[in-house]
Amino acid sequence: MEGKAGRKREGKPLLTNDKELELSIKSLMKKMPLFGNTFSPKKTPPRKSVSLSNLHTLDRSTREIELGLEYGAPVMNIGGQSLKFEEGQWIAESGWNVSGKEVQRLKKRNLQLEEENNLLRLKIDLLLDMLSETTAETHLMEKELEEVKNHSRRKK
């Protein structure tokens, strides 16, 4: 082996100056991406321009005339019955097979069932109150019985 600047390794001289070292590192980085710059974001493409359509500038009536966009109220069919959504409520369209008398009878029955339901709730509340009162009395009686037993044991 020769001196530091002229050293050879297996027939190839080692790097002799900074320029050669820099070139060697750059070529090594190209060959081995592990040593490269890991953060290299791609350039973002330019944004597409806002819609070129001028439909949003037209008022509703003009759009309806020009494009035929007449929406109307939403309609749905369930079990052969047609319902239309108007003013925040679903309204039955013609074609219902239920007569006016049947509707009145069903409303009356519904009212009866609601009243019966309210009465049953009232009865449940009353029974729960009675149960809690009886439970409290039982606990008091048990406590008094324990006190009597303890008192009689002390006397013996």
TrEMBL record:
Pfam families given in the database record: Chibby (PF14645)
InterPro entries: Chibby_fam
Protein name: Protein chibby homolog 1
Record organism: Coregonus suidteri
Lineage: Eukaryota, Metazoa, Chordata, Craniata, Vertebrata
